Amino acid sequence: MRQPTGSAYFMEEHHEPVARHTLAILVDNEPGVLARVIGLFSGRGYNIDSLTVSEVSHEANLSRITVVTTGPAEVIDQIKTQLDRLVPVHSVVDLTLTGRALERELLLVKVRGKGEARVEALSLADAFRARVIDATIESFVFEITGKPDKLDQFIILMKPLGLVEVARTGVASIARGPEGMAE
Amino acid sequence: MAADLTAAPTERMTGAEIVIRALADQGVEHIFGYPGGAVLPIYDALFQQNSIEHVLVRHEQGATHMAEGYARSSGKPGVVLVTSGPGATNAVTGLTDALMDSIPLVCITGQVPTHLIGSDAFQECDTVGITRPCTKHNYLVKDVNDLAQVLHEAFYVATSGRPGPVVVDIPKDVQFATGGYIGPRNVVHKTYHPKLKGDAEKIKAAIELLRGAKKPIFYTGGGVINSGPRASELLREFAHLTGAPVTSTLMGLGAFPASDPQWLGMLGMHGSYEANNAMHDCDVMLCVGARFDDRITGRLDAFSPGSRKIHIDIDPSSINKNVKVEVGIVGDVAHVLEDMIQIWKASRAQIDPAGLMDWERRINSWRARNCFAYKASETTIKPQQAIERLYELTKGPDTYITTEVGQHQMWAAQYYKFDEPNRWMTSGGLGTMGYGMPAAIGVQKAHPEGLVIDIAGEASIQMCIQELSTAVQYELPIKVFVLNNEYMGMVRQWQQLLHGSRYSHSYSEALPDFVKLAEAYGVKGLRCEHPDDLDATIKAMIDHPGPVFVDCVVDKMENCFPMIPSGRAHNEMLLGDVGEKTVNEAITEEGKMLV
Ligand SMILES: Cc1ncc(C[n+]2csc(CCOP(=O)(O)OP(=O)(O)O)c2C)c(N)n1
Ligand SMILES: [Mg+2]
Hints:
The complex is a heterodimer of chains A (about 180) and B (about 600). By secondary structure, chain A is of the alpha+beta class. Chain A contains five helices and nine strands. In chain A, strands 5, 6, 7, 8 and 9 form a five-stranded antiparallel β-sheet that branches. A four-stranded antiparallel β-sheet of chain A has the order 2-3-1-4. The two termini of chain A are about 35 Å apart. Chain B has three domains: about 5-190, Rossmann fold (3-Layer(aba) Sandwich), CATH 3.40.50; about 200-365, TPP-binding domain (Rossmann fold), CATH 3.40.50; about 385-555, Rossmann fold (3-Layer(aba) Sandwich), CATH 3.40.50.970. Helix content of chain B is about 40%, strand content about 15%. In chain B, the strands form five sheets. In chain B, strands 4-3-5-6-8-7 form a six-stranded parallel β-sheet, with helices on both faces. In chain B, strands 13-12-11-14-15-16 form a six-stranded parallel β-sheet, with helices on both faces. In chain B, helix 1 (about 15-25) crosses helix 2 (about 40-45), helix 3 (about 60-75) packs across helix 17 (about 435-445) and helix 8 crosses helix 13 (about 335-345). The interface of A and B includes residues 84 and 89 of A. Magnesium ion (MG) binds next to loops of chain B. Magnesium ion binds next to loops of chain B.
């Protein structure tokens, strides 16, 4: 079997292909739990591409953290087991490995412009099913939900049309089918 | 709060009283601590009771190492009590040390009153923030009604699964406030339930691999010791059943008896020639409660290239972390070994005797290399010789050895032989100079009748020397045995081998007169400079009923061999009798970059 060479003492870069993974982490909603999760990423040098967190059950006092991270399969596996051993963590699921996970993100974009650019922005927004949630004579704020790459695309299109500001929520993700996340 | 309140509190008392009561209910007999403003209510409650004995240390780092020594030698969690701010930050080194070496500690820290948190109050620090990465878990208790539950949970978390340190930070107002108390039995943890029993299919697969082996090896670690004495017994039984040779990490020494013919000695950077070669050439490796640390594996891509590997570990994140294994079994060592032995016996499994005999022959040829040989001198004490004599004159089931960090630590591991678990306490993962003497105090507290010796270096011992005063106050007859080579020897050795003998700041300049220093503390001081005086000095040390400090002057330039230079494989060890030139050439440019 091939040995990984990822020891701190043999920092040859990973030659294994890296992939993007979405992890869902069910945690006790208590102070410091997010710091523990993030601290694990920063302390061990893992990437966070996107992070969302919110309470999902008030009665059970549970929060769900969704982390999008990139790395070779072995590193992702290591992240997962490291997360799993944090005391307030109930369960960790690699939604990318379950294969059929749904991902959505919400984006707010402010675009400023007049005349043709303004008309163009509005019609593109329409094509992307974005909603106008604020308007002045010279600006719009669009709201749009979708997969992250669709939002990327929308931002690219808005750039030449007077893009002023972008706010994104980060990815929320859930597996398809009738099964719930195993506890 | 991560636990269920399954029972209503039965009694009401102050937070400080809850602390004492919870400790007593957890069976705690000794705690190591240092007072300060933010823990005064707890100290007041301590004053008014008799069930818990408090050991007053001289520096909070000392308290943490004492608790570690106590825990490691007794199997019980060590308990520390310190104040807010500097008390807590001083404890950080010991907490990190305990995390790295999987030692169960519960550390109670005082905190400024709740309403002052975040205001830069006097002696405020973000204790939970600072200790988050260096504890297994930590808590800030803001409501006195949560306190009992959190404390019981802290003991549960510290001692179950892979053990580790847990901090409970208690603001002063919570210590004063009155709240309900619940006992330990009423606390059930909601999320944290480490798996003890190994997966049956995996265990079967492991047995299949083992029975097909021709060149098996057991590579064992601190996890065997943490699993409890039963695990050591089972390890012995399984090794004898299979006939496999056994090696161990620094942390695991004593789990398998050094006097057993199947024992190979310690492995790794300063391990034995036979252990490292056997690791390199084996065909099936059973790793029991060890974690493929870089001091063990050496060059990863050349680590035991031809073997199939089985890994038993209670921490799932240790499996496949550094080294890929064929069979990873998550579970407690004793539980898993018990199952393995049962299947092995039931299926009348056996390792091919012819193969095993060949393997033994190979191993014996490595043994014959006599890798720990050294040249004794008529005039200078060799450090190896000092440990050998110390071993001969002090060995026994009631002897406990702690160490500091450096060459003396490695020589102790190489030349002192352990036949039982929990007799060897050393800072492995963090390598903390200053660990050994306070650890010895903790060990002595747990084993008042034991002979407890800190094998030390003259540099390390100065990092927590103040704890001699603690030993004197509590009449703890620890023995400090310093191998005084007037150098930070391990640093000097690396500078010699890796940095062209440029001994930058590694000379122990302006050393105190240790005998006078010891005597100033009320400790008996002895100095030994000549090989002829070695035995007499050691005997005098043992015979003195109180604490003793031996300043044993040894060869200044001795190096610690065998050594696997950084960046090299197990079968590329340097041995003690090669010339200096070969030593220098043996280390690659790439290796010099490594730690
Ligand atoms: C707190 C701490 N600081 C620095 C080091 C790095 N270090 C490792 S061994 C060593 C020298 C130890 O010298 P001594 O105690 O005299 O032991 P010797 O190697 O001479 O036996 C040093 C400085 C360490 N391990 N711990
Ligand atoms: Mg020294």
